[in-house]
Design goal:
Number of domains: 3
CATH superfamily of the largest domain: Trigger factor, C-terminal domain
Oligomer: single chain
CATH topology of the largest domain: Trigger factor, domain 2
Strand content: 15-25%
Distance between the termini: 42 Å
Number of helices: 12
Amino acid sequence: MAKNKKEYKVKIEGETWKDATDKALKEASDKVKIDGFRKGKAPKNMVIKAYGQGNIWLDAANKCIEKAYEQAIKENEDLVIVAPPSVNISSVTDDFVEFTFNFVLKPEVKLGKYKGLKAKKESVKVTDEEVEQNLNHMREHYAEMVTKDGEIKDGDTAIIDFEGFKDGVAFEGGKGENYSLTIGSNTFIPGFEEQLIGMKKGDEKEIEVTFPSDYHVDDLKNAKATFKIKVHEVKETKLPELNEEFYEDLGMEGITDEASLKKELKENIKAKKEYEAENKYVDELLKEATDNMEVEIPHEMIHEEIDMMLHQYEENLKMQGLTLQQFYQFTNSDEESLKSQLHGDAEKRVKERLLLEEIMNVEKIEVTDKEANEHVKELAKQYNMSEQEIMQQYVNIENVKYDMKMRKALDVLKEK
């Protein structure tokens, strides 16, 4: 038997097997069409011949598997099973069925060095330039687009008509009317937007461009094209002044002038950088500690993690109004290629989880129900949610305790 695997054999016989085969035969009778008989009314021997004795036994075995699995779990409750088992039917007759569950067990972990690691947390600094950049981004968020009479400049938005020609012939998808194009957005092919700079409202012009080699239309790859352009309107971005009205529009408590706003921005930038530095530090600690440990991870465990990640990926797409099938179409991919992309992260997650769980065991980390309940109260206060809403996320108190123990194991990694 392979490492991290255990076989559990089951034999179903007697009345249990007879009931299962009778139900399977009845269902087969209701499904198969036999000339001269209404469904469900044909003689048993004719149903068996039409549907196949092997298929009836297989259907009956499937009816027995779920209860047999529950019994197998009860009889092996000391095992830590980390992935759904495979099931093999080894023998089946009119009198009995025998099948084997192949359990995948949690692998043995041999910790290496996990304290006093080399990784160090980076110190965080915020420059005046970064504060200015954030302030400008904030002003851009509140900016207005206003029509202007002058020439198109980089950053302006031009309302244009355009039509593209290849060898003097208009091509499909190359025409647009009253199209709003921001210069410098790189929305169009290279060389297009730059040639609009200097044009004004009412101007007409022909420009020449070359489509890139990786363009999505084969006939246009590396092709030279001419576009006829007409400018209907030019708009520029007008940034708001740093005045009392602007600070009121922000609706930020305590922000009344430029100094208080910059102070707030600096604190926000610092908090973000500290969060990123902490995540990077933890990632480096985990990599160092997992590199030091020894473990042979069953491939089923990684595949189970990939399936979980795929499910989460699908849920995230739903929040954006997309399905997985639409994602595959847009990206010219499929489930197999997405799973392949997720494999590396899935293996990393499994390794890190096994590492922290083993540290929990070695360090004898425990969390009481009282500690867990207090933690739920703190989370509810932090996220302005009810304790019931927090518990809906965790499902049960044991998951809260597990999460807290994993965090304590992470704290052990940080010890010097």
